[in-house]
Amino acid sequence: MTAQDLYRIRDFVPDFDTIAAEFAERSWALSARADVRADIRYGSGVREVIDLILPERVQAGAPLHVFVHGGYWRSGEKINYRFVAAPVLAAGGIAALVEYDLMPRKRLDVLVDQVRRSVLWLQAHAGGFRRGSCATDRQRSFGRRASCFLPCRDRARGSLPALPCRRFKACCS
Asked: Is the pTM for the entire model greater than 0.90?
């Protein structure tokens, strides 16, 4: 008898595959109509990439919303979460979806560092996004489950300046 894997969420959510398929479908629909700049490198690793999703007209000082997908550090891909950019775009913001390595291939400290570096990269390049710029003092982080914790934790520790995340509950689902 094998032990139950408590990190394999699909074993605990009866309609997991249906939900995942809906996420992917909604993401592909948004990708077809949005200005997506896919797989922008923030590091040298294969999965060290970001998708930027821009509104139709980027206004100077547009807010930047950084999304870190969930998956218990072991699954998930940013491409299947693009749908979260819809309300950001509707409000005139820019969405950045972060990809990172997964466990057990990489250890958690590597994943934590990747998320931190992706946010630092976004801060360093925010002023040069095509057709406009975004304000580094208007960055927000949001994510699914534990993944949102990383930028919030780093902000609280002071290792990510100018990344407001006032309350953990406010940015995470």
From this structure: no
